[in-house]
Write a structure and sequence with these properties.
single chain; Alkaline Phosphatase, subunit A; Arylsulfatase, C-terminal domain; five-stranded mixed sheet; 481 residues; 2 domains
Length: 481
Amino acid sequence: MARKPLNLILFGIDSLRADHMSCYGYGRQTTPHIDRLASQGVLFENNYAPHIPTTSAYASMLSGKDCFSTTVVALRHKGGLPDHVQTLPEILRASGYDTSCVGFTGNPSSRGFDKYIDYPSWGSWAEGRSPKAEKLNEVAVPELERLAGGKKPFCLFLRHMDPHAPYLPPAPFERMFYSGNEFDRSNKSMEPVMSFKPFCDFFADWMPPGITDADYVTAQYDGAVAYMDAAIQRLLTRVDELGLSENTLIVLNGDHGETLYEHECWFDHHGMYENTLHVPLVLRLPGKLPAGQRVSGYSLHQDLVPTMLELMGVKPKKKIDFDGSSLLPMVRGRKASNYSDFYITECTWMRKHGWRTPEWKLIVALEPDCHFKPEVELYNLVEDPLELKNLANREKGMTTALRQRLENWVAKREKETGRTNPMYTNLNWHGTSHEGPFTSSQQAYDTLHIGSVGAANRLQAGPQKKARASAAKKKPARRKK
């Protein structure tokens, strides 16, 4: 008798920092329900998003490919995925699956689903508290029920937006981790935030007018995580009620992390610091995956698709040479890690790439950024895990060695793919009227401006009309420091 095909539910969580989850050691109890999910499956302690931000992250997460293969590095990627890239829903559809996507319509990286469903996923102070996760559940639960009642195995992809700014969790989550006075005039921590010209209008559109305490904003982020966690449990409860638990692979992965008050890159996902790169990965499949296991080896987004396909017993109709590798040898103790070091990129509000090892991180700017950061940054991740001491000038030998490894990797991947590194060719990544790379940080600072929440939503959705068409066919100037 043929084995019944497994279903797949993939939670893609936008802007979720692993270090702000209780199952990853955070001091606040932000994720009790995800903690329970992890206790029933496998948690990967060192899972990383190598390509920041959303569009590039999901391109790898949903294809098993790195940025050299997907050609996607920028948030505002122009065009769709290349034809040579097969996405997870395309692979599963060819194997008889019914596939649905909630909350990611039109993004180039979400190509190939049978059905797309949207929900209100932003919000502003004027609109009041934003129940994003409940709005997702309002459409996701009926879709889950429809898929469960069908004759085909299914793949349901859910893109959660709660930890993503604006952080506006509903009661009681908005005060769950804060008992102070967010309007205390003696607290000056929000002054640099609200004077940062590229983002000040965006912040003013969703933060409380007159706010002075940055800790309040961080507490809102944590409250949003806890709120989303509770909403995820509603979906997991429905999975149990529908009798799907034993035959459904549950995956929870973050696309990238978030910068809160670190590195003067406030309340968004700028840069390639650990708070942005380190994201959660949890897998549960009773009978096939051990319960309560934690894997310490390194994993990347491009490992997810080959891992899921192996667990589900799905073989692509056409052979795919994935850039990532299955994580199951690590789970079974046959392999310590998928990586010893790896290439990293960021193309949201700055264009940079770098190289990360277990001990060191090199960050190299490909053009000046709006935060007035140095061209080269080097951090000792063991002695300085918060990345506060730039050692690029002191440790010149290490800087040179890592830069050579970075350049060697780029040359290798360019040769293997026959394509130029997309980090070198995406020169209008910022989506403004400015043509080409910025020539100074001041120019970047004066040019980049996110505007209101609505403008931010449109900015992120800007290239999606072309992607939909493709899918259908197939304050004052700041002085430099």
